[in-house]
Amino acid sequence: MGSSPPVFIGAEEVEKHLRRASLLLPALEAALANFSAGAAGGVVQPLRTVVPVQRHGGFLGVMPAYSAADDALTTKLVTFYEHKKDSSVPSHQATVLLFDPRNGSLKAVLDGSVITAKRTAAVSAIATKLLMPAFAEVLCILGAGVQAYSHYDIFTELFTFKEVRIWNRTKEKAAKFANSVNGPVRVCSSAQEAVTGADVIITVTMATTPILFGDWVKPGAHINAVGASRPDWRELDDELMKNSVLFVDSREAALTESGDVILSGAEIFAELGEVVKGTKPALPEKTTVFKSLGMAVEDTVAAKFVYDSWSAGN
C-alpha cells in the first residue's frame, strides 16, 4: 500500500476547528517553554529563510520546525507584501505543510492564514497574562487588519477591559472594525489619543517607521509589538524600546529580524518561554514590551491541533 494522498484543509475548515484561539493556549505555552529549553526541549527550528521579491515589494518566508514533544513536523510558507493598492489581496498569505515525521510523507496541506492569525494572537495573550499590570482597564489596538481581529477576539474572551480603543492609518478601516466586532470599541483619530492611559497596547501594523512613542505610554503598561518583522522596519521608538523590559519569542530571531530590537540597541531581558517555564521573572509592575516575530513551532502545534481535530471528525 502506498501512502494516502495529503488532505487539504481550507480556511473555513481551519476556522471551524480553531473557532476560539484560546484552545491553542496549552499547546503554545508548552511549545514556547520547550523552545526556550534548548536541546532538552526537543524543538528544532532554524531561523526563517526570507526571499525578497524586490520588483513587487514582497517577501516569501519559509518556516520549518520539528517538535519532539508533539512528534510533529511542518513547514509554513508565507508571503507578505507591503502597501498594496489592491486591498482585495491580504498583505499576508500562508500555507502550512504537515508531514508524517515517521516516514516523511506529506499528510496535510492547511490554509496558513487563519493559523497564523490565531496562534499569533494566542501567544500575545500568553505574554499579556504574564506581563500586564494588575488592574488593566484599557486595551488599545493600533492597526485594523486580520491580526487586529484575532487579537480582539482572544483578548476580550480572556481578559475584562472597561474600554477598547482602536486607531488605524486609514480611519475607515478602524470604523469598519468597530462596527463588525461584538463589543463596544472607540475609534480614535490619532495613535496618541488611542494610547494615552492604555494599560495594554497591541501594535499590528505594516508600519516601517515608529507609530508608538515612549512618551505617550503610561508607566507600567504592557505592549505586544506584532508588526515590523524586518530588520529595517519599526513600530516602536527608541525611547520605548530602551525604557521597557523587553521580552521576545526568540532571541536569535529578534537579533536578526526585528528592526525595533536591532536599531534601538535595546537589551533583551528574556524569551517568553523562559517566563512560562519560570526561569525568568515576568515583572508585570514594570513597563514591558513583548516583541513577537512568530515562530515556526507555533505553526507546528497549531497545525497538529487542527489536523487532529479534523481527523477525529472524519
TrEMBL record:
It catalyses: (S)-cystathionine ketimine + NADH + 2 H(+) = (3R,5S)-2,3,5,6,7-pentahydro-1,4-thiazepine-3,5-dicarboxylate + NAD(+); (R)-lanthionine ketimine + NADPH + 2 H(+) = (3R,5R)-1,4-thiomorpholine-3,5-dicarboxylate + NADP(+); L-pipecolate + NAD(+) = Delta(1)-piperideine-2-carboxylate + NADH + H(+); Delta(2)-thiazoline-2-carboxylate + NADPH + 2 H(+) = L-thiazolidine-2-carboxylate + NADP(+). InterPro entries: NAD(P)-bd_dom_sf (IPR036291), ODC_Mu_crystall (IPR003462), ODC_N (IPR023401). GO terms for biological process: thyroid hormone metabolic process. Keywords: Cytoplasm, NAD, NADP, Oxidoreductase. Belongs to the ornithine cyclodeaminase/mu-crystallin family. GO terms for molecular function: pyrroline-2-carboxylate reductase activity; thiomorpholine-carboxylate dehydrogenase activity; thyroid hormone binding. This is Ketimine reductase mu-crystallin. The keyword Amino-acid biosynthesis does not apply. One of its GO terms (cellular component) is cytoplasm. It is an enzyme of class 1 (oxidoreductase). It is found in: Cytoplasm. Homodimer. Binds the thyroid hormone triiodothyronine (T3); T3 binding inhibits enzymatic activity. Its EC number is 1.5.1.1, 1.5.1.25.
